[in-house]
Amino acid sequence: MLVLGIETSCDETAAAIVETRPDDRKPWLLRSNVVASQVDIHCEWGGVVPELASRQHVRDICGVVERALSDANATWADVDAIAVTQGPGLVGSLLVGVSFAKSAAWALQKPLVAVHHLAGHIESIWLEHGPIPLPAIILVVSGGHTSLYLVKQEGHYELLGRTRDDAAGEAYDKVAKLLGLGYPGGPILDRLARDGNDAAINFPGTRLTSPDRNAPERDGRFDFSFSGLKTSVLRHVRQRQTALGAEQLPANEIADLAASFQFRVVDTLIDRAFAAAHWHGAKAIGIAGGVSANSRLRAEAMAKSGRSEIPVFIPSLALSTDNAAMIAAAGIRLLDAGRLAPSDLNAAASLPL
Ligand code: KG4
Ligand code: ZN
Predict the structure, then answer these.
(1) Ligand 1 center to residue 73 CA distance, Å?
(2) Of 25, 31, 267, 348, which residue is the least packed, with the fewest Cβ within 10 Å?
(3) Topology adopted by domain 133-310
(4) Per-residue pLDDT reduced to its tens digit, 165-203
């Protein structure tokens, strides 16, 4: 079976073809994965401008899907089902993908499935590695979300904790913006941090043990918070600007700041993920989402995996940041469960998982 995935939740227009195969160790084969990034358009504004994003999706969607088909050596006639991101995301952006997918499914008379963007990130781990040992703890860490899930059964996600304020990727983007480094901030700070001293500035960590007011049934043990760290960085930068009498900090100070900030973010993410794994007796940890592309997070997770003997699974870089292959993969789970989308499917900007 060939599944066409479509993803337009934010600033990437993406389409991919995933094939299902009768192979228990690798049941999903990635046939093509096309992403048209809008970074060049939005970086001028220091972040994603929703109206510009949706207009660019309209321009790109047909060409991106055609390219995904040709890269997979397939035609429209070979497509057996279509999977599209329904939400969460920017509603104008989501609508482009949802409208396109509904029209294509109707024209082809093929089944349509509506995918949650985070389910896509989670399933990118299975797409990359095949089945992983269960139960597993999955850390989804992106520009919009930082959440921990317990997966006891494939395709079923139990929320254990999430950020109470900023997502980790959002903290990266805001710190980079504050330093005048550009957008998106994650890859820029990741690169700069390599030349910095991660012990130069002792930014505070957070440990949340009080219940979340919005979800009192969770004790907060596995929640995250990054807004305090972001404020500490802001305070440090303002102090240094005043002391230097200049807007721009020297390159070595920026590198030290990037390394110290990154140390704290990565330490927090890894600490919570492994604590959750021990608490729930998990046999594996998965890390997915845009921030899983971070070089330090990948290295520290693998190092800790070696020490703790819990295997860690992270998708390749192409499947870490937003893509449509992960949407096709999550769509296959829905198809297998017979959970088809109605023909009047609508985009949902704040869809719960
Ligand atoms: O998953 P994603 O592509 O989109 C969302 O669903 O949000 O994640 C984008 C986020 C951005 O905040 C970006 O700065 C961050 O992932 N990111 C990184 C790295 N590459 C992307 N953060 C840290 N280090 C990286 N290398
Ligand atoms: Zn994402």
Answers:
(1) 30
(2) 25
(3) Nucleotidyltransferase; domain 5 (3.30.420)
(4) 999 999 999 999 999 999 899 999 999 999 999 999 999
The CATH classification of domain 2-121+320-336, taken from the options 3.40.50.720, 3.90.180.10, 3.30.1520.10, 3.30.420.40: 3.30.420.40
Pairing between β-strand 284-288 and β-strand 146-151 as defined by DSSP bridges: unpaired
Q: Name the strand (E) or helix (H) holding 140.
A: strand 136-141
Average pLDDT of span 94-104: 98
Task: Record the pTM.
Answer: 0.96
Confidence class of residue 26 from pLDDT cuts 50, 70 and 90?
A: very high
Residue 241 CB neighbour total at 10 angstroms: 13
Dihedral sign computed on CA atoms, order 298, 299, 302, 304: negative
- Beta partners for 85? 115
Distance CA 285, CA 210 (A): 25
Q: Assign 205 to helix, strand or coil.
A: coil
CA of 65 to the centre of ligand 2 (A): 19
- Indicate which residue's Cα is closest to atom 8 of ligand 1: 290
Position 47 scores a pLDDT of 87
Give me the mean pLDDT over the 116-126 stretch: 98
Please check whether the two domains, 2-121+320-336 and 133-310, share a CATH topology. yes
Q: Where are the alpha helices (DSSP H) in 72-147?
A: 91-108, 117-129
Residues with CB under 6 A from ligand 1: 10, 142-144, 169-170, 172-173, 184-187, 190, 289-291, 293-294, 321-322
User: Per-domain residue ranges for the chain?
Assistant: 2-121+320-336, 133-310
